[in-house]
Amino acid sequence: MPGRTLPTFTRSEVESHNTEKSCYVTIKTKVFDVTDFLNDHPGGGDLIMDYAGKDIEEILQDGDSHSHSEAAYEILDDSLVGYVLPEKAVSASTQKESLQNGTVEGATETSTFVHPRTGMSREEDLSKDTDASSDYKKHKFLDLERPLLLQLWNGGFSKEFYLDQVHRPRHYKGGKSAPLFGNFLEPLSLTPWWVVPSIWVPAVIYVTSIASQGLGPLATAGYWVFGVCFWTLIEYAMHRFLFHIDGYLPDNRVGITLHFLLHGIHHYLPMDKYRLVMPPTLFVALAAPFWKFAQSVIFWNWYGATAAYAGGVFGYVLYDMTHYFLHHENLPLWYKQLKKYHLQHHFLDYELGFGVTSKFWDDIFGTTLRPVVKTN
C-alpha cells in the first residue's frame, strides 16, 4: 500500500506530546498519535501514559509484560501521523549498498540522516542514477524507459500514491531527459535555459520603453523596481499554492496529469536541465492574468502599471535563471547557501522552502526549511 505524505518531527517535539490531551509514541522513525486510544486500551490508559512521548517498540515485543495482537498494530497504523528525524542515520557505506532513489529500505542508524519520505540524505543523492527496472518493479509507478505521460494517464493511480511517488526524486541516465511523449512532440517538452532570457529580456526592454513614454526616468524606475519586488511574492505564492496544490488536487487522472506537467515532473526528475525552466507558452498562460492585475492595482496610471508589469516579468527571468543555476551550476558563497536551501526542498521536505530567489517570504509566512541537526 502506498505511503502517505506526512510531516516530520524532531525527537524533542515527539517527547513534548506526553499528556492525556496529546499523546504520541514512536516505533523507530514512525510517530503515532494514540490520544484517542487511551481510554480504549485494555490495560488502561495509564500503561500508555508511562510511554508517552517515547519509543514503544521494545515494550510491544515484551511478552512477559503484555502480549499484543495484530489488531494492536493495525490500530497503530491508523494512528500514524508522521516520522521522527533520528539523531543518527544511515552511514555512507550502508547507503551505497541499500539506497536507491525513491527508497530508504535497508538503512541503519549511524551517521547521515536519510529522509523517510524521499529516501535521500543530501543534495548529491539527487544526481545518483536510478535503476529504472528495479525502481519500477519496486514502486509500480512509472518506468523511466517508456514515455511517462501515457503511463501516468493510464496508470489508475490514486492521488495519495501519486503524490508519494512523484516527490521521491529519480535521476535518468546521467541527467538526460526521460521520454515524456515518446514521439514527434518530445522536443516541445524540452526548454534550454537560454530560451528564457532570449525571449523575455527583449520583451521587458520593449514594454519598459512604452511605459517610459508617459513617465519620467525616476517614476519609471520606481514602478519597475516595485514590479521586480512584487514578483518575489508572486513567485512564493505560485510555488506554494499552485505548483504545490497537492492537498486540493482532484483525485483523478486529469488533475494528476496536469499537476505532473506543471510541476510534478520537476520533483520527479529534479536534475533534468531541459525540464526545469518554464516553457514560453506556459509562462504566457500564467502571466496573462497579471496584466489585468497590474492595471487594477495601479489603476491611476496606465504607464506606471505597464512599468511595474515589465519589472515583474524581469523578476520572473531572474527567478528562472536563479532556479536553473541553483540546480546545475557551481555558485559564489551566498548562492551556495541558497542552492543548499533550495535543493533541500527537493530531497528533504517539499512542503517547506517555497522561496527560490530568497528565503524572505518563507521567513514571513513560517515555511522556512529547518536544517537537520546531526549529533554523534
From TrEMBL:
Co-factor requirement: Fe cation; Zn(2+)
SUPFAM superfamilies: Cytochrome b5-like heme/steroid binding domain (SSF55856)
GO biological process: fatty acid biosynthetic process
Domain of life the protein comes from: Eukaryota
Location of the region described as Disordered in the Swiss-Prot/TrEMBL record: 92-131
One Pfam family of this chain: Cyt-b5
GO cellular component: endoplasmic reticulum membrane
Record's compositionally biased regions (Basic and acidic residues): 120-131
Main localization, broad class: endoplasmic reticulum
Positions of the Cytochrome b5 heme-binding domain: 6-85
Membrane-spanning residues: 193-215, 221-238, 300-319
Keyword Plastid (UniProt): no
Membrane topology of the entry: Multi-pass membrane protein
Enzyme Commission number: 1.-.-.-
Record note on cofactor: Binds 2 Zn(2+) ions per subunit that likely form a catalytic dimetal center.
Record: residues binding heme: 41, 68
Amino-acid positions noted as binding Zn(2+) 2 in the UniProt annotation, renumbered to this chain: 345
Localization of this protein: Endoplasmic reticulum membrane
Key words of the record: Endoplasmic reticulum, Fatty acid biosynthesis, Fatty acid metabolism, Heme, Iron, Lipid biosynthesis, Lipid metabolism, Membrane, Metal-binding, Oxidoreductase, Transmembrane, Transmembrane helix, Zinc
GO MF annotations in UniProt: fatty acid 2-hydroxylase activity; heme binding; iron ion binding
InterPro entries according to UniProt: Cyt_B5-like_heme/steroid-bd, Cyt_B5-like_heme/steroid_sf, Cyt_B5_heme-BS, Fatty_acid_hydroxylase, Scs7
Keyword Isomerase: no
Function of the protein: Ceramide hydroxylase involved in the hydroxylation of sphingolipid-associated very long chain fatty acids.
Family, as annotated: Belongs to the sterol desaturase family. SCS7 subfamily.
Protein name: Ceramide very long chain fatty acid hydroxylase
